[in-house]
Amino acid sequence: MPDATTLLCPVCQGALDLSSEPRRTLACPAGHRFDAAKQGYFNFLTGKGTNFLEDTSPMVLAREAFQNRGHYAQLAAELAALVAGHHTAQQLDIIDAGAGTGYYLGEILDRHPAARKDALAMDISRFAMRRAAKLPDTLAVVWDVWRAIPSGDGSRDVVLNCFAPHNPAEFRRVLRPRGLCLVVTGAADHLEEVREPLDMLSIAGGKQESLVEKFGAEQLTHLSSRNIKYQMELEPEDLFNLAFMGPAGHHLAAEVLRAKADALGRRTVTASFDVHLFVPQG
Q1: Is residue 5 one of the residues assigned to a domain?
Q2: What is the b/e burial string over 210-228, where b = at least 16 CB atoms within 10 angstroms of the residue's CB?
Q3: For residue 4, what pLDDT band results from cuts at 50, 70 and 90?
Q4: pTM of the entire predicted model
Q5: From CA 136, how far away is CA 261, in angstroms rounded?
């Protein structure tokens, strides 16, 4: 089981201890207690709520189906290689902030066994955390990334942040001096062939500049950025899953989106990701 001592209670910020008897429970010295759901995740938002919409069960199923087809495997492999190249320690403490199903975290765990010592996946979606809880030796926690991360100062070697809200002040706080923050965003040409016909959100330009400025203000130095670009051959079912797993899933009916995907037929679609590496200053 993972070492939970780096976890903090979201109520009082005391250290949380993990116990398994009679059921999996996280508890702090002040008596605050969080029992694992039957699917294995912990919900730290109980009684707190959030202003953001969680991805629904159908949206998460669409994401899982799309990821399982390997369309983003090249990105996942690159992230795992970047972590392995930056850290060679016997133990690696990692947080996936906005983890979704835990797909990218899972690839890192598979390729970097030391990361299994204490992995933490966070997302506001209970349905996503059900999937992430299945990862080996990983604590999956329902939590809002905009809030204080429930982990101690300088407690983590890697912060992973893929297509999720950024909280650079908290990323910097939890990182160790030689830590690495990996941020993934969609490039301007990402999914350009299908964004409009599938009612997907456009991608604003100038993202890298604003990201570097935002993270630099929180004492995170921009180490480098790289673009990963390739072509995907997508069937109508892939196109539906691709659109429905994102923001479109919140405002379009599934049958409407499926009809749009079927009308497009089989398509060659550009995958284009910008991967940004940040390290703590000093």
Answers
A1: no
A2: ebbeebeebebebeebeeb
A3: very low
A4: 0.92
A5: 35
